[in-house]
Structures are given as C-alpha cells and as structure tokens.
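Example 9 (inverse folding). The structure is encoded as follows.
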C-alpha cells in the first residue's frame, strides 16, 4: 500500500514539474490584429458620427415634446397680426359635363353661359353665332378661394366652385382656366383650373331623404398664385389674435408667455387680442416661433355641430338635454320621462321619448332610428337650443 502511494505522489509531482517547464518555455502571446476593409471602416465612422449627433441633439428633441392631454399649442389658437386670410373670387366655365350643364340656347335662356363661350372662342379667333349654341355640357360657375397672405407666387391652394345657372350637376366637369381677383375689377392675382370633385353624400338611406347636392364642388390644389400678395412683416407682429375670442384663453396665453419669455412680455387687451412687448433684435422671429410652440389649456365652450345634408351630429363634451317637447313635421320629440324609462323609446313611426338629462348622442341615435331626415334633425336641435333645453351652441352646416 505504501509503495502505491509513493508511486502516485511521484507521478503527480512529475506532472506539475512538466507543466511549469512548458509554461516557461512557451512563447509570448501575439496580440490579435483586425484588418478592416475601406467599406467596413466607412460604416464604423458613420455609426460613430450618428451616435455623437444623437447625443448632441437629445436636449433639443426633449424640449420639443408634444403638449399634455387637453393642451393646445398657441399657434393653433391664434393668428399673428397681419396674417388675415385673403379671399379671392372669379367667374369661370365648367366644361365636359355629360348633358347636365346649363340649359342654354342662344337667345333664349342662360344667356351668360352662351356669351361666355362666344367670348372664349373669340380669343382663339373662332366666330360662332350665339343662336347656334347648345350648351348642355357647359355650366357657368362662381369660383372662390381663401389663401394665406404669406403664400408666395407659385404656391397652390384649394378652390370651391358653385353653379350660377340651372345646371343639374357638375360631376365629371373640368374648370376652364379662371382668373381670380381680390375685388371686382381688380387685377388677377391667381388662376384656377382642374377636375372637379363632388361630394358623394351619405348612405343610400340618407340620400333618399337628402339627395346629394352636385351643383357645388371643389378642386384640391386647383389654384395657383401668380402675383405677390400684400403682407405685413412677420417679425413685426405685436399682437396675437385669438381664432375664437375668450377672456379665459387669452389670460392663459399671456401667463404662459410671461412665464417662458419673461414678465410683462404679454398683456391681454381684450378677449380676442394679446399684445406682445418683445425687444427689437435679430432673433425676434425666433422668439415668436418659440411663443407659438407654447401649449395652454383653452376654455372650451360646449358645442353641437350638425350636418344638414347627411344628418351627422357631433357634440363636444358630455352635453345633456333638459325637458322639452318639439314637434317638427311628422316627428315629435318628448324629453321628460322618469328615470325608469331612461332608454330611448319610440311610439309610432315618428314619435321619440327620452329621459331628462339624456345626452345629445342618445337623442341623435333615437331620431336616426325613426329615419328622421337630416334637415328635421337640424331643426329639432336648433329648437331645443332656442327653448333653453340645450345650453351648448348649436351649429348647423
């Protein structure tokens, strides 16, 4: 037994000695060298530059965070002094109609359409006797638009086209190039032309009671500004004009400006105007931009908006309705049931009964359930506003 132990110990000692000798005789480790191609080197440099830029711009991105829920930027609540939109108008011809234009016959009806076509052809040295004209594919139209005074020549804008004669529809028509002026007899500031887009209206059931009006249309980006418009210098603006005057909103705007820019930088003049007291410097435009990016919580008046064409009802906030009875045409709306009958109920094809305190959405759904025409829905809500059952403003479009 002792002999075996001695032999094992001797073997272990020899192994340890051999490992120490191998470690002393081994060459030093050679450092690893990584060779990058030109393309790989460029990729690494771009990644390093992008990381550095992201770290540099991080404070700026954090500063431009979105406003809190319910807050609105000042730029969306106000306009700068001198930035009043400019309205343009013109008279033109819609051509290419499929027999739905003005029923114009030379010397009999729709004389302005016939005369307009005669004058148009004369510009191309073409003479046609007016009595030979048949204008079923042409319609006389009034063209209107509203543009910003800061729009430059070459800028495009949307225009609206409305029939002036007895055309049945403008669908499929094209507006011939029409000059637009700021006032009758003034110089042409812009031109308008393009294919007309006519609203498709609501569903088939809604169109049964309110057929789609096809005598008005619009042309997105159909206007082209050709002359420079008179405008005030943006940096010289000293007032912010509220789109919807409200003393509460104006006070909050002034408070936000004074807190961000400095005391006495803004003063409320009236519910529709906030006067600015900014130092004249090269960065005045930058300061105005900074002010426009501030966010405040505006005073929101309750409002109900009704589309008289398709019957769409939109209520801002939780607007409830008080007791009232409205009878309009074949529809009768009674508001005054007890809480046990709070759910809307109908009696007969045109009678609606709901509980006091019902929301506008609930009443609108009940009226739609008995297939009330859109015009009558608008008239009923307007009547509820007049008798005081609704405290919100009712806007019918």
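The amino acid assigned to each position is listed next.
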């Amino acid at each position: 037994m002792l002999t075996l132990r001695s032999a094992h110990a001797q073997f272990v000692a020899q192994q340890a000695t051999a490992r120490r000798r191998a470690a002393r005789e081994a060459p030093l480790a050679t450092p690893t060298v990584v060779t990058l191609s030109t393309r790989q080197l460029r990729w690494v440099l771009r990644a390093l530059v992008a990381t550095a830029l992201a770290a540099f711009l991080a404070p700026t991105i954090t500063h431009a965070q979105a406003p809190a829920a319910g807050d609105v930027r000042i730029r969306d609540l106000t306009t700068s002094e001198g930035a009043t939109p400019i309205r343009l108008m013109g008279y033109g011809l819609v051509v290419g109609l499929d027999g739905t234009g003005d029923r114009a016959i030379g010397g009999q009806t729709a004389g302005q359409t016939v005369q307009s076509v005669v004058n148009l052809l004369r510009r191309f040295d073409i003479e046609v006797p007016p009595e030979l004209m048949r204008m079923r594919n042409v319609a006389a139209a009034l063209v209107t638009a509203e543009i910003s005074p800061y729009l430059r020549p070459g800028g495009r804008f949307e225009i609206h086209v409305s029939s002036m004669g007895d055309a049945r529809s403008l669908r499929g028509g094209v507006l011939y190039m029409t000059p637009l002026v700021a006032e009758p007899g003034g110089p042409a500031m812009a031109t308008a032309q393009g294919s007309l887009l006519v609203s498709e209206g609501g569903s088939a059931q809604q169109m049964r009671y309110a057929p789609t009006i096809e005598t008005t249309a619009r042309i997105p980006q159909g206007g082209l500004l050709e002359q420079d418009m008179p405008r005030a210098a943006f940096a010289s603006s000293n007032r912010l004009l509220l789109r919807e005057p409200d003393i509460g909103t104006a006070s909050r705007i002034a408070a936000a400006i004074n807190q961000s820019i400095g005391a006495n930088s803004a003063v409320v003049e009236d519910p529709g105007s906030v006067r600015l007291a900014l130092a004249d410097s090269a960065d005045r435009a930058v300061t105005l931009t900074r002010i426009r990016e501030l966010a405040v919580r505006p005073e929101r008046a309750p409002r109900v908006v009704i589309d008289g064409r398709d019957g769409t009802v939109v209520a801002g906030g939780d607007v409830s309705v008080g007791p009232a009875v409205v009878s309009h045409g074949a529809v009768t709306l009674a508001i005054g049931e007890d809480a046990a009958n709070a759910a809307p109920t109908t009696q007969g094809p045109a009678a609606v009964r709901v509980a006091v305190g019902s929301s506008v959405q609930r009443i609108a759904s009940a009226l739609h359930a008995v297939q009330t025409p859109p015009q009558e829905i608008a008239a009923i809500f307007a009547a509820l506003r007049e008798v005081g059952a609704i405290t919100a403003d009712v806007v019918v479009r």
